[in-house]
Amino acid sequence: MTTPQPQRLLCVDALRGFDMFWILGGELLFAALFTWTGAGIWHSLAGQMAHSDWHGLTAYDGIFPLFIFLSGVTLGLADKRASALGGGARRALYRSALRRLLLLLLLGVLYNHGWGTGLPGHWDEVRYASVLGRIGLAWFVAAMLVWHCRPKVWQGVALAILLGYWALLAGHLDNPAATPNAWVDGHWLPGIHYRQMPADPEGLLSTLPAVVNALLGVVAGGLLRSPRQPWSKAVLLAALGLGLLALGYLWSLVFPLNKTLWTSSFVLVTSGWSALLLALFYVLIDLLRLRWLGLAFAVIGANAIAIYLASSLVDWPYVAASLFGQWLAALGPSAQPLGAALALLAVQWLVLAWLYKRQIFIKV
């Protein structure tokens, strides 16, 4: 007996698109609005569009964890079990997962050395750690656990990772060069690090707790897939998010929030916000039926990795200026940054809308 495939939820693609929106140029809007209006609220929001230097959390710090969380949501919605498959189907599943992992690792290296730089001529000058690589590794490990273990087992593994990581890093948080992450990356991560930092933000050791972001996404996906009433699912998702936030912020009193190290408290807090956002999008799009909102962001989310990679390989600001340059020049000096940001977003969105309308989805 085969398990029926769940209906695809528009809210998941929409939230993935909302996440990517800020990477594609949305982060420029607040600073541009401040330049245009001078209102302090935009200046405060613009400050949230940059990563924390070390300890702390900004809204921009949550973009990457949300993407990993959503990769886990798709696992929870699919609810695959390798033990339920025949030998041939199981081998095909493994090949597909391994191919996805290797492709994301390769594309991550390509992204790191996109237009304007190019791949170095020497292997030891390549940056191998990447955002796409971490997404691939976190998803792959989470998939192997979910496909082969009962929920109590992989949930226990997630808890062990968080507690073990805390024990490993305790007392080594003040000096970036003295962290276990710096030692592991210095000895075992080939090539160069991001901005020559002692510990690469997408390094080896800090990828381990990122697996838990994906596993918590599996929990959320399981809630959405459950036979409960739709509004009950929304309430449970919100409760999951609030519970994770409470635990994470309490834990941060002794194990600070830190994106570079991807601390255990950072995992819980970012997963909490991710669950709350998923609950919000589920209510607005799939329950209240605001389909226009869902489609506006789903256009981006349906080809999220493709447009992320293109942001490294295509000079989108040049394209936007080529199309809208005369109109932008006609704006006043204070309005030009806002016009440039909107033009940048419009060009990318129109390309993605063209792909979406023709049902062209570039999947990895």
Explain how this protein is built.
- The chain has 364 residues and is an all-alpha fold.
- It has one domain (10-357).
- The chain has 15 helices and no strands.
- Helix 9 packs parallel to helix 11.
- The chain is globular and about 60 Å long.
- 42% of the residues are buried.
- Residues 1-6 have low confidence and may be disordered.
- Keywords: Membrane, Transmembrane, Transmembrane helix.
- The chain crosses the membrane at residues 21-45, 57-77, 97-114, 126-146, 153-173, 204-224, 236-255, 261-285, 292-314, 334-356.
Q: How many separate domains make up the residues? A: 1
Total strands: the figure is 0
Low-confidence stretches: 1-6
Share in β-strands: under 5%
Q: Percent of residues in helical segments? A: 55-70%
Transmembrane segments: 21-45, 57-77, 97-114, 126-146, 153-173, 204-224, 236-255, 261-285, 292-314, 334-356
Keywords: Membrane, Transmembrane, Transmembrane helix
Protein name: DUF5009 domain-containing protein
